[in-house]
Structures are given as C-alpha cells and as structure tokens.
Amino acid sequence: MNAENLHQPFEIVYKETDECLKPAHKHNFFELVYIIDGSGTHCINKNKFEYRNGHLFLLTPQDLHKLTVRTTTKFFLIRFNDIYFKSQNEQANSQQSEWIKKLEFIFHNTTHSPGCILKGMNDRVLVKALIDGLIKEHINKDPYHQEIIHQMVNTVISIVARNLYIKLPNKMRYDSNNDETTLKIIHYVQANIYKPELLKGEQIASAFQISVNYLSEYFKKHTGETLQNYITNYKLKLVETRLLHSDMRINEIAFELHFTDESHLNRIFKKYKGISPTGYRKQVMFDRKMVVAATA
C-alpha cells in the first residue's frame, strides 16, 4: 500500500462530501481531521469511532484510516510534517526554540488512543473558533491571510500538543534533563510492537548499543519498571482499545498482537487487569448503557 506524501511544511484542506473520501490509506505526515458538520464512522488502525460535529482526530505517520460518511460531512484538514517543525525552529528565538522541541517530542512520542483528542470543553470551544477563522481566511484571502493562517495553524497544533501531553505517561514527559536513550527505547518499542522479533532483549540492546545484561536494569532505573513489563502493559493498552472500539474477536486480537493464543491473552489480561477480556468488554458496554439511560 502506497502512503501519501506532503512536500511542504503544512497545508490546510476544506472538504464537503456525502461519499467516502477514499479507501483505507496511510500518510507519511501528521494530519488533524476536524469535523465541522455531519456524522459517520472513522476507522483508525481497525478501531472504529462514531464521529460528529466538533470531533478532532489526530493521524500519525503510517496510521491506517478510513472515513465512512453517514450524513453529508464538512471536514477541515491540517496536514504537517517534520519540515514544519524544522522551519519553525529556524525562525524561533531561544525560548520559542525550546517550545518547538517540545512540540516535536510530543507528536513523535504520543501514545494517543484513537478517537477525539479534545477532552476539555474549553479546548473544544477554542479549536472551533480557530477552525472557523481559518476557513474564513482561506476563503476570503484578505491581505496577509497567509501569515494569519500560519499563526492560527501554530495555535491549533499547540492546543493538540497540550491534550496529548496531558495523557503522556510521566516517564515520557518532556524534560531537558530526561535520559534521551530511554525515550528512544520507548519510541522503538511502540514503533515495533507488532514485530515481536524486534522486541527481544538482544535486538533492543544491539539497536541502542547497551549490554543485553544491563538493558533491563538501565530501563528500570529511568522508568521505574522493567522493559518487559512496559512492553506487556503497552500491548494490553492496545488490547483495551480494540475491545472498546472494534468488533474484533479475542482470538483475532491475540493473533494481531502476537500472544501465543487466546488463552495466553486471557491469562495475561486477567493477571494485569483483574478481569478477562470478554468480561472487560461486557462491563464497558454495560457502563455505557447505564450512562445513556441516565441521560435520556
């Protein structure tokens, strides 16, 4: 499957359609998808989400996604890549440069759960106002509209980074004193979570030129947990996402995430979560029904 490329720091796109935009596809850049109006389903890496007005989705490079339109939908897209971060940094003073480094770090190390990334009402209101302003500038093309669009895009991206940062584990929070190698190991694990042959201690130690006998001790020293425990917890987070947002069967999830079989996944999940995957899915569905009933 070919991935789309972006040959400029960023671009904005406004679309209105009552049809699916295109088949499932990937990008080699970041994309923010804002739903101005309409409804449908957004599938990201096999996880399905119902979308509606005001939802904002983040797609990271190599995410596989597809939008299925139910009612006529207006989208606003902001696409940006590594060139965006580099160009921003070249124009920044020392204080701004530190912020750009934080932005780049957050986007490249995000462990976001697929779905709307705006959790607070204040940010939802703020982003809606910014998107409305971007559309007007994009359409009217008044004097200096490009400069204003650039600044507004910067602000939207900063708000998204704030929402991502809040959900980053403490051990991955940006800090100029953080151990860079540990953060790179975490990023390596996330990038290769579907490739168990690359997650063996020998492979990771070789990739980062650390003694295989010292690797686990080194990782625990900087994160407070063993490397194997981190890998297991990250896989279980992906299991939870599939249980909540897909109709995949337990054996399919086990196969995708390279558990030995369904019983292996059941055993590990119950050990760490105190409940079986099936029980977890049923409990969440029950809780959702109770919330809907309470607000009806």
TrEMBL record:
<dbReference type="InterPro" id="IPR037923">
    <property type="entry name" value="HTH-like"/>
</dbReference>
<dbReference type="Pfam" id="PF02311">
    <property type="entry name" value="AraC_binding"/>
</dbReference>
<dbReference type="InterPro" id="IPR003313">
    <property type="entry name" value="AraC-bd"/>
</dbReference>
<dbReference type="GO" id="GO:0043565">
    <property type="term" value="F:sequence-specific DNA binding"/>
</dbReference>
<feature type="domain" description="HTH araC/xylS-type">
    <location>
        <begin position="183"/>
        <end position="283"/>
    </location>
</feature>
<dbReference type="InterPro" id="IPR009057">
    <property type="entry name" value="Homeodomain-like_sf"/>
</dbReference>
<keyword id="KW-0805">Transcription regulation</keyword>
<keyword id="KW-0804">Transcription</keyword>
<dbReference type="InterPro" id="IPR014710">
    <property type="entry name" value="RmlC-like_jellyroll"/>
</dbReference>
<dbReference type="InterPro" id="IPR018060">
    <property type="entry name" value="HTH_AraC"/>
</dbReference>
<keyword id="KW-0238">DNA-binding</keyword>
<protein>
    <submittedName>
        <fullName>Transcriptional regulator</fullName>
    </submittedName>
</protein>
<dbReference type="GO" id="GO:0003700">
    <property type="term" value="F:DNA-binding transcription factor activity"/>
</dbReference>
<dbReference type="Pfam" id="PF12833">
    <property type="entry name" value="HTH_18"/>
</dbReference>
